[in-house]
């Protein structure tokens, strides 16, 4: 802090009074005035003398000046606004606006997250459903195959289907027949494999075999002596085309 | 001593945009400020314009006034002084490195009308003290310019100002004592 003695000796208060000091010195003098009560008293007295001198040297201006001032102020008054409360209000409004916007953005994000989650959940549910049904199907097939009552029979293809092979699972107890035709050579679109049971020399239709499926359930025919596979026109026939016999197995 | 309580209240109203407060301050201080402006520019019409400009500036920038740093009069005086000096610089349109030349021109054909003469207690001061006070407070000279104008060292000039102010205070005090004695005698 600048010393009181220095300020007084250098006449800095007088210079401060008329606003002649540099910004730096003004700050220094103001700081000293704030902290040194006796210096402040000194300055107060100086100001009082200065004002008294000013009043003594006063010259009355013409009344026209006040009238002109009045007019000027009236004009500016409409434009002069007290900005402080307005700016505080504007500040609050801005904060409110920004926070509202922020909350809105958050809310929108949450909404979209929620809908994404919902669609993911329903997708998962669908997948789980599919898996469950597939699992049930597979385990049913497995149960129906891997069973002591089931008789697995392999049907090897003749010269019409060389290296062809189908597996039939026959359960006499529950009267079910399942056939895996995957091993048979694939046919043109207008043809299909069809299976027949031989009962007392009569061929009875058991159903067609689509080689795309792994296990095809077929009709169980009682007292069948053999199982036969023929190639028939697409959709199957009522009577087998014996010339097109591909494979057979004796029961 | 701070502003009177009355001033404080008026200034508060002025800050809140009350123009009546401005006219109250005008009634109180316009004479003193006009005294300063007129003695500086020595042109009655110009001085009246500058006085008006000063009060418009006060009206527009009252919220920058800090009462804890000094009296309203001191603050208004600075505005009046700067407004006048700026207008004189612009008017003279002199290309100069030293502001003093503005005054040098004036100084040569100085015809000081009666209304710019100082009055009252200042006249009881010694001539060099009077001149020091006049230059600094009523002509808008900086201390640096004024000591050159008077042809004395800066330190000496500063002590002139201090002594002058001190003597003025003593004069005021004496006056107060006389008034007090007078009132006592009247009682």
Can you describe this structure in just a few lines?
The complex is a heterodimer of chains A (251) and B (187). Chain A is an alpha+beta fold.
Can you give a write-up of this model?
The complex is a heterodimer of chains A (251) and B (187). Chain A has helices at residues 4-9, 12-17, 23-35, 37-56, 63-77, 83-145; strands at 150-156, 165-171, 176-180, 191-199, 202-209, 216-218, 226-233, 245-250. With 251 residues, chain A is α+β, with helices and mostly antiparallel strands. Chain A folds into three domains: 4-75; 86-146; 150-250, Immunoglobulin-like (Sandwich), CATH 2.60.40. In chain A, helix 3 packs across helix 4. The longest helix of chain A has 63 residues, at 83-145. Chain A is rod-shaped. With 187 residues, chain B is an all-alpha fold. Chain B is built from eight helices and no strands. Chain B has helices spanning 5-15, 19-41, 44-61, 72-92, 100-108, 127-138, 143-150, 154-186. In chain B, 34% of the residues are buried. Classes of the chains: A alpha+beta (251), B mainly alpha (187). At the A-B interface, helix 2, helix 4 and helix 5 of A face helix 2, helix 3, helix 4, helix 6 and helix 8 of B. Chain B: It comes from Flagellimonas lutimaris. Chain B: Belongs to the sigma-70 factor family. ECF subfamily.
List the helices and strands and how they pair.
The complex is a heterodimer of chains A (251) and B (187).
Chain A: H1 4-9, H2 12-17, H3 23-35, H4 37-56, H5 63-77, H6 83-145, E1 150-156, E2 165-171, E3 176-180, E4 191-199, E5 202-209, E6 216-218, E7 226-233, E8 245-250
Helix pairs in contact in A: 3-4
Chain B: H1 5-15, H2 19-41, H3 44-61, H4 72-92, H5 100-108, H6 127-138, H7 143-150, H8 154-186
Helix pairs in contact in B: 1-2, 2-3, 2-4, 3-4, 6-7, 6-8, 7-8
